[in-house]
Design goal:
Blueprint lengths: L4 E3 L1 H7 L2 H16 L3 E2 L4 E4 L5 E9 L4 E9 L11 E9 L5 E6 L1 H19 L6 E5 L3 H9 L8 E5 L3 H14 L3 E4 L3 H7 L2 E4 L18 E4 L12 H6 E5 L2 H7 L1 H8 L8 E4 H6 L11 E5 L4 H13 L2
Parallel strand pairs: 1-7, 8-9, 8-11, 9-10, 11-12, 12-15, 13-14, 13-15
Antiparallel strand pairs: 2-4, 3-4, 4-5, 5-6, 6-7
Helix pairs in contact: 1-3, 2-3, 2-11, 3-4, 8-9
Amino acid sequence: MNSVLSISEEDVTRTLTVRKSIQLARRAYVTRARKRVLEPLRTWFTVPGGASFYIMPAYVSGLRTVSTKVVSVNPGNRNSSLPTTSTTIYIFDSKTGLELARIAGDNLTAIRTAASSALATDTLANKGVDSLGIIGTGKQARAHVLAIPEVREVSRVLVYSRSKAHRAAFIRSSSKNMGVSVTSADSADEIVQRSDILVLATTSRVPLFKGSTVPIGTHVNAIGAALPNSREMDTTLVKRSVLVVDSVEQAVVTYGDVMIPLRQRAITKSHIKAELGELLLDPNIIERRQNDITVFKSGGLGVLDAVFTDYIVSQF
């Protein structure tokens, strides 16, 4: 009987540098854009009065492994000091079907999501930007504060969440790892007004700020809410933006940030200008001007997990 590897959150963090993670994310998106991926649309459901669950399988042509991610989400857990998300990724041999590994997936999800946002920022954000604003203080926020400076020379980081204690802990942790100023803002609106690049990394069910207040030239990475009835951006911001997503198919059926404006008939599907993988293959397929507000909306793709976990397993 084969021995199943058990790979911890700490193992994942030790194995993945920021730079390597961005390289792996690029490989995943480009491979997907070239149609070399088996990636069924993710399945999700919500237990009445309980958690939501996502199941995300994927296979990349030529890899030894197949991955299946199982995620549970319950924003209400924060009231009991429990994790709001829990993730495990199961790895199988692509030929025999035998299980090879189980990987704790919370850190990996944060790292590969931040790598995706870094790629989108590098492709969409103006070159001269230097201030990064983050709404949220969880693992996703912590991963983004390391990833975005890999693609832009960030001189200032601002962070906001409703909890002052969480903000203070985030600043202490992030200041150790960065050579730039990390400071707290008093509101989401302050973050919006003082940042060239925004990262929205919350589990909010309602928009975090008024889209009419976002300055021209801002780039937004919206990576938190990913359920049909939840969104971090309002319809006004989506309408104002050059909108890029990780997956059009997934965005129009599971991302409230996109679905709600579609349902309101404020936008049509054609408002989505491209998928990130298409842009990485050819950055000139959409026109972007200095004063455009650009938005990258992602909810996570199985292909990212497949590429990242295949690499991780190869290191053990």
